[in-house]
Amino acid sequence: MPCNRHPFKSSAPAKIILLGEHAVVYGMPAIAAPIQSLRAYACAQPSDTMLSIRSVELEKSVAMDAPLPDDSARPMQQLLQIASGHFGVRKPTGNLVIRSDIPFAGGLGSGAAVSAAAIRALAALFGRGIPNEDLNQLVFEMEKIHHGTPSGIDNTVVVYERPVYFERGKDLELLTVERPCHIVIADTGRAAMTREAVGRVRQRYDERQSETEELFLRIGQVVSDARHALECGEQGRLGALMNENHRLLRQLGISSPELDELVDASIAAGAMGAKLSGGGMGGNMIALVDGSTVQAVRRALSLAGAVSVVDFVLN
Ligand code: PMV
What is the per-residue pLDDT across 248-296, written as a single tens digit (0 to 9) for each? Predict the structure, then answer.
């Protein structure tokens, strides 16, 4: 990223939802964790011209008050407006460049990470600090633009960069992971928009409310049991709960043949548990492994069609 003169640089991590996606939108708990090694980056540089933003991946640039070439650049412009509005900077100047190593539309929180990195860099450009609490709120505003009705879990884990036990509207609870968990993440290669997956679940909820609520309650129970397993270092139990969570998400209708195939392949290769992660209908799945199974599971996932496989240790 070209950023030579007085740059203000920042970054934020990707995230996985370990358990509880979708039900979390309806008030159930969920557990999420940052992936420190996979990040989005922002670099803000002072200039005399109206504040502008350039996305390396989208190959788009837009200035804060300029007419838009097309709607796809609107969220980038809104990011500048939301940040400048928060800091009360009336005629901001400077250039912001955003770049991300996190796959887009993969359920790994790329949107939240880009927003968090960008707003931190803008805060520094404006000569201001930003407490995590305020940043969390601003990134949540951006999540609403991207997703419609987000639960708030993505922005929370990406801003605090710690494993969280999240319940909508409740105080933040950081989680202690007793025994490091080795997680493999595999990408189906099918891009999936969280907004669509959330809409599909909403439709199911509207059509079959009591049955869908029952599924949410069961997911909520799985998540609270998994919290206990994580805090006590019971990995076998955690794996079984991930499997159960995937089964419930399938019933909710947001898995896909590709996701199911990767989940089955990882279990057959020795993973302790596996499930889709994030919005579903494509995107990424996760598997819980240990030192002796990680390579076999990685290989099995590639053979089963994953377009990328990475692993990391959650602690
Ligand atoms: O697809 P992602 O990484 O944005 O995860 C979305 C998680 C959901 O529970 C499906 C939605 C939400 O806002 O919590």
Answer: 999 999 999 999 999 999 999 999 999 999 999 999 999 999 999 999 9
Give the residue among 15, 18, 59 at the shortest CA–CA distance from 36.
Answer: 15
Q: Are 125 and 106 in contact (CB under 8 A)?
A: no
- E strand or H helix that includes residue 100: strand 93-100
Pocket of ligand 1 (CB under 6 A): 17, 21-22, 24-25, 107-109, 147, 150-151, 153-154, 194, 197-198, 278-279
Residue 304 · residue 131 · CB < 8 Å: no
Ligand 1 atom nearest residue 192's Cα = 1
Alpha-carbon gap, residue 301 to 227, rounded angstroms: 27
Alpha-carbon gap, residue 48 to 26, rounded angstroms: 46
Cα distances (Å, whole numbers) of residue 195 to 25, 105, 126: 12, 10, 32
pTM (2 decimals)? 0.93
Tokens 């420190």 identify what position?
A: 36
One-letter amino acid at 240 equals A
Closest Cα partner for 183 from 76, 80, 290, 82? 290
